[in-house]
# Entry
Amino acid sequence: MRGMRSRASSSSGPPVPRDAWLRLAACAAAAALLQMDGTIVTVALPSVGRELDTGSHTLSWILTAYFLSYGLMLFPGGSLVDRIGSRRVALYGLTVFAAGAAL
# Structure
């Protein structure tokens, strides 16, 4: 038992390449951006409901439609990544997102 512990704690795997850390950082940044966007929509929803004079039931449908449309776009997005590559899809997606946010 003692030999197993020392062997497991002393073994270290190969170093993680710098490219893997950059990809992890890019994925984490994209996830944070999407989370922030979802939070903004959720926080803004009550004031939108007051301005449009709608009830909470209607607002819940709006929120559901927003997140459902996001979720449904994951399938064609994954297929697009397989066809043209993840870097291009990420750059095109960020461009479209930035243009939409600017509008």
Remarks:
- Residues 19-102 form one domain.
